[in-house]
C-alpha cells in the first residue's frame, strides 16, 4: 500500500465521531462573520450597519488577487461591523448579523435532487467558484479559484483529491465522503474540467475502509477517477506528502505543487465546488467535527459560518467542567482557542475539547540529540538545529538550513522525548526569515 | 647525555629563529596602515560592543567617527556626553550635547491589573507568544512577560519582576543602547530622556483599543478619555487612536496629568511624595526643559 | 471551566520521553546485571550499587550547590552512567576507586559541559579510561568467574580475559593456535555465556544481545551504528585472520570477546555522543570498528573498544557537519517523475 517515504509519525487516531452522521445544527441567534477567512488580503464589506441580508447574500468582496468573497450565512439584520476577538485573541473586523428567519437568496437551488450534468465552460466554472467564495477547506483556506488558474507556462496533469484526514480526532471529511460521495464525484469532475486534466486520484487512508469502498464503487464508471488507498501515516494530508504518496513525484524545495503537474484539493472543497457550480450555493456552511473524549455527545455538524464555538459545544453535550484547552482544527496542527466566543470560519474543520490534565505540555529536558526530530521530519530538515538557530537569532543560517521548507506539521515536537518547543521556535524563525526574504526582494 | 641536551637546545634555537623570521616577514607583508586615532578613540569608548550606536561594535564606531569628523551623527549612547566630549576634545571637533536617555516600559498590565484569562505555554519568547495569541490578559498591546528584553540587554539592566510579571529597568545600569526596544515585539519599551533628577512622567500604556475594550482586559489601561490633554497647560500631551502620549521635550514635569488620569495610566517616577499644595506649585513652575 | 491553556501546535505528544528512554536502557541492562551477579556474586552487587549511588549523588551535589539549577537526577541519565561505569570495571575493584570513577564520569565528563545532552564524550567511558590509566593494576586484575551454587571453590584472583591472554601470549612469541589451546582460554561458549574473566558487564555476550534486542523493539536504538560497527570490525578482523591466522584472532571470537558487544550496543549508540544523520552514524560505526581492531592488534592495550568509541565521539561534531539528512524536494522534479514512471 502506498504512502510517502520520508519521516512521519503515528499519533493515536481517536476518531470517536467516525460513525456519527452529519447533523444540521439549528440557527444561532447571532453570527459574527470575520472579513478575513482565507489566505490573502481581507475582504471589503459591502453592507452597512442596519442592512437586511438574506442567506447567501454577498456581504464582502475579495478585491486583491489572493482573497475571496464572503457571503452571509443567515438572513437577518446587520447589527454592526466591528472588531471581534479572533481565535488567537487579536481583534479583527467582522460583520455581525442578528438572525431573523432563514430566507435564502432566490438564485440558490435548494432542491434535494443531485444535478449530475455539467453545463458550464471552464471559464464559467472558475468565475462561479470565485463569486461564490469557495476556498480550500482542508485548513489552509487558499482561495480555490486562484488554485485553478494554472500559470500558462505550467501544465496540470493530475487532480488529487485529499480525503486523507490524517489529523487525529477529525472525521468531517470522512463523514462527507460517506454521505455526499456522489456530489463529491461531480465536484471532482467539475474541477477536472476547470483544470483541463484527464486523471484524478482520491487519496484516502486505510483507516477509513468504508469510505474507500463506497467511493471505489461510485467511481467505477469513471475510468479517469480512481481511489487510492494509503497506509496511515501523519502528515499524509500535507500536499507534498500526498503527491509523493500517490504519484511518487516530489515537489521541489520552495516550489508549488504545480511543478509536478499536480493540483491538490480537499474532499470538502470538492463538495463545496459541486454546491457552488451546480446549485449556485455560496460557501456559507461547512461540516465541523466537535469532539473530545470528555464530551458527552460529540458529533459531526453542518454549521453556518460565523456561529460561535460555544454554540456548537452546547449542541455536543456542553462544555465539560474539566476542560483545559479547546483546539480549532486537529490536535497536530490546530490552533488553541483563547475564548469560546470566536466564530466558526471557512477553515474550521473541527473543535477538539481537551481535558485539563491533558492540555499541558510535557516537562522540558535538555536535548539529548536522539535525532528523532530529524528522523520523523517529512521534509528531511533538522528541527533541532533550526530551533537552536532561531533561538540564537541566526536567521541567515536558518534560511540556509531551509527553514522555509518547514510545513509546521509538528511531527518533530510530537516526537521529541525532551519535550522541547521545537515547532514554536521554527514558526518564529520562519516568520523572521520570511521578513528578511521579503525585504530582500523589495530592495 | 650532554649531547642529547645540546641537540635539543640547538634544534629549539633553529626552530625559534625560523619562526621569528617567518613571523616578521608576514607581519611586514600584511601590514595594515590605519589612522592611529582610531585606536585612541576606540580606547575612549566604553568597549561594551552593544551596538546601540548602530555600528557593529565600538571599533566600528571609532572608525566612523575618525573618518567622518562629525559628531552630530555618530554618537555613543552608552558613554553619553562625557565620552563624546572627551572624543571631541581629542579630535578637535564640536561635540553636540544630547540628553541622556533611559528605557521605560510602557505597560502596567501586571498580574493584578490585567489578570490572566488564558495560560500561555510554550517557547520562552515574547516574539512567539505575540505570534501565537494576544496574550494572557487578552490585551493585544500589553507586555507578554516572556523576557525578550531581558535576554537582549547586555548590561543586566532589565529583569522580569516575578510578582507583577513585568520588566523592571534599573536606572543606574541602563545605558539606553536600545537593544530592548528592538527586541520587544510589541514596541512597549521606549527610550525617553532621563529627566532632571531622574524625574520622568509618561503614559505607561500603549493600548490603541477603545476605552471600554482596553479597560476590559486591564485596569490601568489608557482609555483615551483626554482628561490629561485638557489638563496640560503646555500642550505636551497628544491623543491619537485612543492613546495619550506625553512629549518629553514639552513636558514640564508638573504632574497635573498624573492626578487627573482616571486609570492611573500616567506614571511619575522619582518625585518626592506629594505633601502640601505649596510643594506641587513649586514644582509646577515651568522647569527649564532639559 | 478552568483557565484555557494556549500553546502552539502540536497539542499531543508521543509516548517516549527522556525518562522512558533512559529507564529503557537500564531495563535492557538487567540480563547482563543478573549474569554478573551469577558469576561474580555479591561483589558485583557492591560495584553496581556504589557506582549508581555515587553517580546520582555527584549529579545531585553539582546541580544543587554548583549550578544551583533544577535537580534532574530522576531523569535516569545518571543511573545509566552509573550502571555502564560498573559494567566497565572488574568486580573486585575497591569501592573508593569506583567512587573516583563516578566523580570523573559525572563531574568532568558530563556536568562540566552543561549536563545531560551537552557532553561530547560518553561519561561512563571517560570514567573507565580515567581509571584504567590511573589504576592500571586494579583495573586489569580480573577475578575468576565463580558461578553461584557451584561447589567448586575458585580462589584464583586473576581470571583470564580472552584478549588479555591473547596479547600476553603473542608477546611471548606464541601463535594464536597455541594460545587457544592453553588451558583456561575462554573460547566461544564461555564468551557467550559469560564464564570468563573481565569487566563485570561485558562478560556475557548473550545477555547483552538480549538487552540489545529489547532496545531495538522499544526503538531506543537504531540499527545503523551497531551494524556498521560490528560489520566493519568483523570484516577487518576477518581480513587479518585470513592473511595470517597465526597472529590474528578469528573474527567470530573477536566479536564476542572483550567489551565489543557492550560497547557496540550500549555505548556507541549513546544518542548524545553519536552523529545525527543515518549516514553519519554509519560512518561513526565503521570508524569505531576499524579503530577497535587496530588498537586491539597493534596497540599497547589488549582492548580497544573504549578508546575507539571515545575517538569517534571526538569526530562526531565533524561528522554532523559533513552529513546532513536527505531533504524532501532536493532533487529536480523531472528526476522524481521519471523515477515514479519506472517504479
Characterization of the model:
The complex is a heterotrimer of chains A (443), B (290) and C (343). Chain A has 2 domains: 1-25 and 105-360, Rossmann fold (3-Layer(aba) Sandwich), CATH 3.40.50.11540; 372-442, no CATH class. Chain A is built from 13 helices and 17 strands. Chain A has helices spanning 122-131, 144-148, 172-179, 181-195, 209-219, 239-247, 267-279, 309-315, 372-376, 383-391, 395-400, 411-415, 422-442; strands spanning 22-24, 30-34, 44-45, 52-53, 58-61, 70-71, 76-85, 91-99, 158-162, 199-205, 225-230, 262-266, 285-291, 299-304, 323-328, 335-336, 350-355. Chain A has a 6-stranded mixed sheet. In chain A, strands 2-8-7-4 form a 4-stranded antiparallel sheet, with no helix packed on it. In chain A, α10 (383-391) packs across α13. Chain B has helices spanning 2-29, 36-44, 58-68, 80-91, 126-132, 148-152, 179-183, 211-217, 227-231, 256-260, 277-284; strands at residues 101-105, 118-121, 158-160, 167-169, 189-193, 200-203, 237-240, 243-246, 266-269. In chain B, α2 (36-44) packs across α3. Chain C contains 16 helices and 1 strand. Chain C has 343 residues and is mainly α. The longest helix of chain C has 25 residues, at 42-66. Chain C is 61% helix and 1% strand. β2 (118-121) of chain B pairs parallel with β1 (4-7) of chain C.
What would the keywords be for this entry?
heterotrimer, A: Rossmann fold, 2 domains, four-stranded antiparallel sheet, 20% strand, C: 343 residues, mainly alpha, 16 helices, globular
Furnish the topology, listing elements before pairings.
The complex is a heterotrimer of chains A (443), B (290) and C (343).
Chain A: E1 22-24, E2 30-34, E3 44-45, E4 52-53, E5 58-61, E6 70-71, E7 76-85, E8 91-99, H1 122-131, H2 144-148, E9 158-162, H3 172-179, H4 181-195, E10 199-205, H5 209-219, E11 225-230, H6 239-247, E12 262-266, H7 267-279, E13 285-291, E14 299-304, H8 309-315, E15 323-328, E16 335-336, E17 350-355, H9 372-376, H10 383-391, H11 395-400, H12 411-415, H13 422-442
Parallel strand pairs in A: 1-14, 9-10, 9-12, 10-11, 13-17
Antiparallel strand pairs in A: 2-8, 3-5, 4-7, 5-6, 7-8, 13-14, 15-16, 15-17
Chain B: H1 2-29, H2 36-44, H3 58-68, H4 80-91, E1 101-105, E2 118-121, H5 126-132, H6 148-152, E3 158-160, E4 167-169, H7 179-183, E5 189-193, E6 200-203, H8 211-217, H9 227-231, E7 237-240, E8 243-246, H10 256-260, E9 266-269, H11 277-284
Antiparallel strand pairs in B: 1-5, 3-4, 6-9, 7-8
Helix pairs in contact in B: 2-3
Chain C: E1 4-7, H1 18-40, H2 42-66, H3 77-87, H4 95-110, H5 123-134, H6 136-139, H7 162-171, H8 176-181, H9 187-193, H10 205-217, H11 224-243, H12 251-256, H13 260-267, H14 278-298, H15 305-322, H16 333-342
Helix pairs in contact in C: 1-2, 1-3, 1-10, 2-3, 2-4, 3-4, 3-5, 4-5, 5-15, 10-13, 11-13, 11-14, 14-15
Amino acid at each position: 500500500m502506498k504512502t510517502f517515504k520520508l519521516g512521519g509519525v503515528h499519533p493515536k487516531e481517536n476518531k470517536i465521531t467516525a460513525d456519527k452522521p452529519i447533523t444540521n445544527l439549528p440557527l444561532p441567534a447571532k453570527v459574527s462573520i470575520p472579513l478575513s477567512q482565507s489566505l490573502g488580503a481581507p475582504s471589503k464589506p459591502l453592507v452597512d450597519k442596519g442592512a437586511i441580508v438574506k442567506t447567501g447574500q454577498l456581504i464582502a468582496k475579495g478585491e486583491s488577487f489572493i482573497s475571496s468573497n464572503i457571503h452571509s450565512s443567515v438572513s437577518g439584520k446587520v447589527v454592526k461591523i466591528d472588531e471581534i476577538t479572533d481565535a488567537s485573541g487579536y481583534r479583527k473586523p467582522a460583520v455581525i448579523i442578528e438572525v431573523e428567519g432563514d430566507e435564502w437568496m432566490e438564485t440558490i437551488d435548494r432542491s434535494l435532487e443531485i444535478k449530475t450534468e455539467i453545463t458550464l465552460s471552464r471559464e464559467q466554472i472558475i468565475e462561479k467558484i470565485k463569486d461564490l467564495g469557495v476556498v480550500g477547506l482542508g485548513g489552509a483556506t487558499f482561495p480555490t479559484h486562484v488554485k485553478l488558474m494554472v500559470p500558462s507556462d505550467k501544465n496540470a496533469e493530475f487532480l488529487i483529491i485529499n480525503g486523507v484526514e490524517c489529523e487525529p480526532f477529525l472525521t468531517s471529511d470522512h463523514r462527507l465522503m460517506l454521505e455526499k460521495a456522489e456530489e463529491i464525484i461531480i465536484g471532482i469532475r467539475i474541477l477536472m474540467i476547470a483544470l483541463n486534466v484527464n486523471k484524478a486520484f482520491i487519496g484516502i487512508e486505510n483507516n477509513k475502509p468504508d469510505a474507500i469502498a463506497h467511493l471505489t464503487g461510485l467511481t467505477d464508471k469513471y475510468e479517469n477517477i480512481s481511489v487510492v488507498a494509503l497506509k496511515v501515516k501523519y502528515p499524509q494530508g500535507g500536499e507534498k506528502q500526498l503527491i509523493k504518496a500517490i504519484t511518487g513525484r516530489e515537489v521541489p524545495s520552495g516550489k508549488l505543487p504545480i511543478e509536478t503537474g499536480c493540483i491538490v484539493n480537499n474532499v470538502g472543497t470538492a463538495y463545496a465546488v459541486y454546491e457552488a457550480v451546480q446549485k449556485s450555493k455560496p460557501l456559507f456552511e461547512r461540516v465541523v467535527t466537535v469532539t473530545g473524549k470528555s464530551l458527552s455527545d460529540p458529533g459531526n455538524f453542518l454549521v453556518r459560518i460565523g456561529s460561535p464555538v460555544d454554540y456548537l459545544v452546547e449542541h455536543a453535550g456542553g462544555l465539560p467542567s474539566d476542560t483545559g484547552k479547546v483546539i480549532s482544527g486537529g490536535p497536530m496542527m490546530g490552533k488553541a482557542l483563547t475564548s469560546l466566543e470566536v466564530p466558526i470560519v471557512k477553515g474550521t474543520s473541527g473543535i477538539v475539547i481537551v481535558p485539563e490534565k491533558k492540555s499541558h505540555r510535557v516537562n522540558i529536558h535538555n536535548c539529548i540529540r536522539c535525532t528523532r526530530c530529524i528522523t520523523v521530519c517529512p521534509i528531511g530538515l533538522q528541527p533541532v538545529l533550526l530551533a537552536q538557530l532561531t533561538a540564537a537569532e541566526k536567521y541567515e543560517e536558518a534560511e540556509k538550513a531551509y527553514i522555509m521548507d518547514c510545513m509546521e506539521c509538528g511531527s518533530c515536537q510530537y516526537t521529541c522525548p525532551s519535550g522541547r518547543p521545537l515547532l514554536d521556535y521554527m514558526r518564529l524563525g520562519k516568520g523572521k526569515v520570511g521578513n528578511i526574504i521579503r525585504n530582500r526582494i523589495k530592495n | 647525555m650532554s649531547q642529547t641536551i645540546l641537540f635539543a637546545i640547538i634544534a629549539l634555537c633553529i626552530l625559534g629563529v625560523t619562526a621569528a623570521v617567518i613571523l616578521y616577514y608576514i607581519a611586514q607583508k600584511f601590514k595594515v596602515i590605519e589612522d592611529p586615532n582610531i585606536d585612541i578613540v576606540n580606547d575612549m569608548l566604553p568597549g561594551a560592543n552593544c551596538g546601540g550606536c548602530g555600528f557593529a561594535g565600538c571599533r566600528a564606531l571609532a572608525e566612523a567617527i575618525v573618518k567622518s569628523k562629525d559628531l552630530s551623527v555618530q554618537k555613543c549612547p552608552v558613554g553619553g556626553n562625557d565620552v563624546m566630549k572627551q572624543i571631541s576634545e581629542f579630535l578637535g571637533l564640536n561635540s553636540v550635547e544630547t540628553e541622556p536617555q533611559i528605557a521605560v516600559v510602557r505597560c502596567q498590565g501586571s498580574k493584578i491589573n490585567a489578570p490572566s484569562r488564558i495560560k500561555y505555554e510554550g517557547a520562552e519568547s515574547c516574539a512567539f507568544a505575540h505570534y501565537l495569541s494576544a496574550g494572557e490578559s487578552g490585551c493585544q498591546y500589553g507586555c507578554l512577560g516572556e523576557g525578550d528584553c531581558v535576554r537582549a540587554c547586555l548590561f543586566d539592566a532589565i529583569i522580569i519582576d516575578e510578582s507583577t510579571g513585568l520588566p523592571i529597568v534599573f536606572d543606574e545600569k541602563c545605558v539606553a543602547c536600545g537593544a530592548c526596544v528592538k527586541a520587544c515585539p510589541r514596541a512597549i519599551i521606549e527610550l525617553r530622556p532621563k529627566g532632571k533628577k531622574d524625574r520622568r512622567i509618561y503614559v505607561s500604556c500603549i493600548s490603541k483599543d477603545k476605552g471600554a475594550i482596553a479597560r476590559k482586559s486591564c485596569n490601568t489601561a489608557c482609555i483615551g478619555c483626554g482628561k490629561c490633554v485638557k489638563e496640560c497647560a503646555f500642550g505636551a500631551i497628544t491623543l491619537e487612536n485612543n492613546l495619550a502620549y506625553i512629549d518629553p521635550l514639552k513636558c514640564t514635569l508638573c504632574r497635573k496629568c498624573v492626578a487627573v488620569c482616571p486609570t492611573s495610566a500616567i506614571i511619575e517616577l522619582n518625585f518626592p511624595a506629594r505633601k502640601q499644595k505649596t510643594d506641587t506649585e513649586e514644582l509646577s513652575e515651568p522647569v527649564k526643559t532639559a | 471551566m478552568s483557565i484555557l491553556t494556549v500553546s502552539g501546535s502540536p497539542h499531543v505528544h508521543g509516548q517516549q520521553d527522556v525518562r522512558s528512554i533512559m529507564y529503557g536502557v537500564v531495563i535492557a541492562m538487567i540480563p547482563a546485571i543478573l549474569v554478573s551477579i551469577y558469576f561474580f556474586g555479591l561483589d558485583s552487587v557492591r560495584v553496581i550499587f556504589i557506582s549508581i549511588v555515587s553517580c546520582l549523588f555527584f549529579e545531585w551535589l553539582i546541580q544543587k550547590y554548583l549550578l544551583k539549577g533544577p535537580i534532574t537526577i530522576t531523569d535516569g541519565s545518571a543511573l545509566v552512567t552509573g550502571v555502564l561505569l560498573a559494567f566497565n570495571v572488574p568486580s573486585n575493584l575497591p569501592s573508593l576507586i569506583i567512587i573516583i570513577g563516578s566523580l570523573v564520569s559525572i563531574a568532568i565528563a558530563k556536568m562540566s559541559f552543561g549536563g545531560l545532552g551537552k557532553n561530547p564524550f560518553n561519561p561512563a567511558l571517560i570514567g573507565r579510561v580515567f581509571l584504567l590509566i590511573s589504576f592500571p593494576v586494579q583495573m586489569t586484575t580480573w577475578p575468576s568467574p565463580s558461578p553461584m551454587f557451584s561447589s567448586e571453590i575458585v580462589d584464583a584472583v586473576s581470571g583470564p580475559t580472552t584478549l588479555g591472554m591473547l596479547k600476553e601470549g603473542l608477546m611471548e612469541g606464541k601463535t594464536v593456535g597455541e594460545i587457544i589451546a592453553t588451558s583456561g582460554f575462554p573460547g566461544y561458549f564461555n564468551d557467550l555465556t559469560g564464564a570468563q574473566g573481565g569487566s563485570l558487564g561485558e562478560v556475557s555476550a548473550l545477555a547483552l544481545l538480549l538487552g540489545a534486542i529489547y532496545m531495538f523493539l522499544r526503538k531506543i536504538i537504531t540499527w545503523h551504528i551497531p551494524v556498521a560497527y560490528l560489520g566493519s570490525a568483523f570484516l577487518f578482523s576477518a581480513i587479518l585472520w585470513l592473511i595470517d591466522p597465526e597472529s590474528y584472532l578469528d573474527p567470530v571470537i573477536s566479536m564476542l570477546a572483550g567489551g565489543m558487544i557492550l560497547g557496540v550496543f550500549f555505548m556507541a549508540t549513546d544518542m548524545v555522543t553519536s552523529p545525527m544523520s543515518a549516514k553519519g552514524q554509519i560512518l561513526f560505526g565503521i570508524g569505531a570498528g576499524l579503530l577497535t581492531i587496530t588498537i586491539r592488534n597493534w596497540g599497547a592495550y589488549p582492548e580497544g573498544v573504549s578508546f575507539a568509541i571515545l575517538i569517534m565521539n571526538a569526530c562526531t561534531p565533524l561528522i554532523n557537519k559533513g552529513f546532513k539528512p536527505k531533504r524532501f524536494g532536493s532533487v529536480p522534479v523531472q528526476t522524481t517523475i521519471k523515477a515514479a514512471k519506472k517504479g
